[in-house]
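tmp note - Porin
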Amino acid sequence: MKTTIKRSLFLIALILGVTTVFAQNRKLDNYRQPDKNGINVFEAPKDTVSTFEKVKVRIGGSSTLQFQAIDHENGVSQQNIDNGVVKELKGIGYNFNLATANLDLDVALAKGVRMHLRTYLSSRHHPEPYVKGGYFQIDNLDFIKEGLLSDIMKYTTIKVGHMENNYGDAHFRRTDNAQAMHNPFVGNLIMDAFTTEVGAELYYQRNGFIGMIGFSNGKLNQSVATGANDKTGGASFLAKLGYDNQFTEDFRFRLTGSVLTTGYVPSNYLYTADRAGSRYYFVMEDVDAGASSPFRSGRFDPGFRNRITAVMFNPFVKYQGLEFFGTVELAKGRAASEDNNGDGINDADDNRSTTQLAGEVIYRFGQTENFYVGGRYNTVSSEMTFDNDVDISRVQLSAGWFMTKNILAKVEYVSQSYDGYPETSILYDGKFDGLIVEAVISF
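out:
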């Protein structure tokens, strides 16, 4: 214990020391700010202003804490519980959740070249430090040769790394463990599209138009091992096309469409890759749920393990303090073992489909829009392997106060219900609702 304390104190002292040394070098080009200034920013802006003089290190981070007061219930009969068909729900009370924390390192390495690395210092699934991922971003090729492809690079960005894939726009507004500053709500979408894979993305941004193509190896957990259930091959293709323009000082419009599709991949994680975990602790979990697992409470995974094609459309409109953000997501896929039509062949005819819809309205007010109120309605409808179509719906009402650009307090009321699950499922006629309060610090 003494050794652990000494190591922790040493790490804190080191971070504080390095932060002091590099405090004056916190401005970076082509960079989304982690505080209030980063709200409604999507892809990193293409705003190189040639500020590079020498290597700059920006050390940042975030921390959050929630107080949860949520109840849950289902329609499972006592007879099914007594007979061991279904386990009873875990008892949950009102209290604080585990505080979460991130550590971010952003380094300007050359003109228009920087690195990003995020570590989860504490999360619901990993109470120990855990590297989320990072990337190498190139907005200028002068480090190779002065003026190389300068006319093209004015509008082009290259990203390479084990990184968060840019599928859809919803992931720019989601909570990423402790980084909850950009999310006006506490919880993410029911079907949370987020994954980190090794790959590369090429962007072109000009006059409001946005284009991106990318590839990844389709794997969350990297390995060269092969065996009966392991393959090193596989790939995912992703692309995005859109338009984003601030037409007047008061009016902004953005619309994007994204696609992610795989050939065969050993295991697809598009809807299960978040190792940080859900904000709604232990909702709809059974009595044997442990302290750290399961950690995706309240979310939905369609089970497209090996093949998936997903399309997402995201409109965003902001007029003065009023803004709307929408999500229309259509996904098809299957696990390699599925034979849903009973013909004895695992092929495209066995694909199942899932649809997610979400719409959120936010009104920001105050002299610097430091207050907001909002609501989100989110639904998921999916074909399942047990021959039932299930429907999940959620209502979220939220209010927030930016005490400073680095400190946010928000409160959310959430109500989620499940329909279509069989009586042998703990989600049969399931429902949870209640309040959750969250404090966020990000710098």
